[in-house]
From TrEMBL:
<comment type="similarity">
    <text>Belongs to the BioY family.</text>
</comment>
<keyword id="KW-1133">Transmembrane helix</keyword>
<dbReference type="InterPro" id="IPR003784">
    <property type="entry name" value="BioY"/>
</dbReference>
<feature type="transmembrane region" description="Helical">
    <location>
        <begin position="61"/>
        <end position="78"/>
    </location>
</feature>
<feature type="transmembrane region" description="Helical">
    <location>
        <begin position="114"/>
        <end position="133"/>
    </location>
</feature>
<feature type="transmembrane region" description="Helical">
    <location>
        <begin position="12"/>
        <end position="32"/>
    </location>
</feature>
<keyword id="KW-0812">Transmembrane</keyword>
<keyword id="KW-1003">Cell membrane</keyword>
<keyword id="KW-0813">Transport</keyword>
<feature type="transmembrane region" description="Helical">
    <location>
        <begin position="153"/>
        <end position="173"/>
    </location>
</feature>
<dbReference type="Pfam" id="PF02632">
    <property type="entry name" value="BioY"/>
</dbReference>
<feature type="transmembrane region" description="Helical">
    <location>
        <begin position="90"/>
        <end position="107"/>
    </location>
</feature>
<feature type="transmembrane region" description="Helical">
    <location>
        <begin position="38"/>
        <end position="54"/>
    </location>
</feature>
<keyword id="KW-0472">Membrane</keyword>
<protein>
    <recommendedName>
        <fullName>Biotin transporter</fullName>
    </recommendedName>
</protein>
Length: 200
């Protein structure tokens, strides 16, 4: 993979755009009795990982979390402040950062394809987030780990829908505007025998 030599200003703009996207998607929220709501923010994390790659995607998530830490209401339900980082959702937020890295690594491990995008979204956007979120939720709420894990079944259908939607949107964007993705990610050939364009 060729090194990505985008200007720093372009990188910062892309990181900020996806941080804003994660924030906006947080306005889509379905409260649950467990205290951990179903939100659209995971969809934003998946899209960030698929489009920005493993280096820039976590920075967009960290930017959003930094805004939350200073008290801005950027988390689902208009929450913000340091209290959110010691609540039942704290592990899921940490999982977003690591998940964004994993999504980017899988999706851009070779030529960008729908199955790499789907695998990245499923592994990084669901499994990794759950691995971080469930133990912290159990510890904060005092509910046994196995029961907490069982309660996450309510999230799974929505997360699978989000992974599917993220894959469809990312693949469509890659076909329409491959320059939005990390340099060196090959765009699909538009015709048989087409000469590949070298990465810049």
């Amino acid at each position: 993979m060729a090194p990505d030599r985008r200007p720093l200003s372009a990188d910062l703009a892309r990181i900020a755009v996806f941080a804003a996207l994660v924030i906006v998607l947080g306005t889509v929220m379905v409260p649950l009795p467990s205290g951990v709501p179903i939100t659209g923010q995971t969809l934003g994390v998946m899209l960030a990982g698929l489009v920005l790659g493993a280096r820039r995607a976590p920075l967009s998530v960290l930017l959003m979390l930094a805004l939350a830490a200073i008290g801005l209401p950027v988390l689902a339900g208009g929450r913000g402040g340091l209290g959110a980082f010691v609540g039942p959702t704290a592990g899921y937020m940490a999982g977003w950062v690591v998940g964004a890295v994993v999504i980017g690594l899988i999706a851009h491990s070779g030529r960008f394809t729908w199955w790499r995008a789907a695998t990245g979204s499923l592994v990084g956007g669901i499994i990794v987030v759950y691995l971080f979120g469930i133990p912290v939720q159990a510890a904060v709420t005092g509910v046994p780990l196995d029961l907490t894990a069982l309660s996450t079944v309510a999230f799974l259908p929505g997360d699978l829908i989000k992974a599917t939607l993220a894959t469809v949107l990312a693949v469509a964007l890659h076909r329409a505007y491959p320059r939005a993705f990390p340099a060196g990610v090959a765009a699909p050939a538009r015709a048989v025998g087409a000469t590949p364009v070298p990465a810049r």
